[in-house]
Specification:
single chain; alpha+beta; 6-stranded antiparallel beta sheet
């Protein structure tokens, strides 16, 4: 019984130290992101967006009648996990490209996942196309009748999975130049719809991760230019 008090005090001390360390880490991250944003020309909203009923998320970045998350409901992981939370948003408009980077946190009731969603809008309008590395889940989807599009490159069709309901437009868009680029970055999941290209990176929003992903996305769009 004499050990109860010292153990309890030790537990309390550990909890306090964890809270202090966690707060310092968050402050350091905020400072790091603020410095990065000012250098790269991003505007950062670090307070996040509040969750509303039925998983809808409102945003100060859109009009009063707009819904921020509606722009992304067609994209993974929001399509499969719409009841999440946006913790942080970074935006930048440069030339004909408008970038929106945000941290999306969601839970399946047992596990909580955090992803960084990188989105870029540009003038062209694309069909809805999903290009991702081939895996067992994709092969099962193919067997169940998923809308897979083959582009005529044996290596690409073996290593990558392309899904779209507009086969002819997709085959016209996925040119040999784009095929070569995607094969060099075969670990990336590319999502196109309307005027938006989206890439999702596992983990929290960090400047080095965003910089490298935005560079890849810019390269992807360059392959689509006439």
């Amino acid at each position: 019984m004499d050990l109860v008090a010292p153990i309890s005090a030790a537990v309390v001390l550990i909890l306090i130290l964890s809270l202090v360390y966690g707060d310092k880490a968050r402050q350091a991250r905020r400072s790091r992101l603020a410095s990065w944003a000012s250098t790269k020309g991003f505007q950062v909203n670090q307070s996040g967006l509040s969750q509303q009923k039925a998983g809808w998320l409102s945003s100060p970045l859109t009009s009063a009648n707009g819904q921020f998350i509606d722009d992304y409901r067609i994209f993974q992981p929001i399509r499969s996990n719409p009841r999440g939370r946006v913790n942080m948003v970074a935006t930048r408009a440069k030339g004909d490209l408008t970038w929106t980077i945000f941290e999306y946190e969601y839970s399946d009731g047992e596990y909580t996942s955090v992803s960084t969603i990188c989105s870029v809008q540009q003038p062209r309008i694309f069909p809805t196309i999903d290009i991702r590395p081939q895996d067992l889940g994709n092969k099962i989807g193919n067997a169940l009748g998923a809308n897979r599009v083959k582009v005529g490159s044996a290596e690409f069709d073996r290593r990558m999975q392309v899904r779209s309901e507009n086969e002819s437009a997709t085959q016209a868009l996925v040119t040999p130049r784009l095929i070569s680029f995607v094969l060099r970055t075969s670990g990336v999941h590319w999502q196109l719809s309307g005027n938006r290209l989206v890439v999702v990176v596992s983990g929290r929003l960090e400047n080095d991760r965003v910089d490298s992903t935005c560079g890849l996305m810019k390269g992807f769009l360059d392959q689509l230019r006439p």
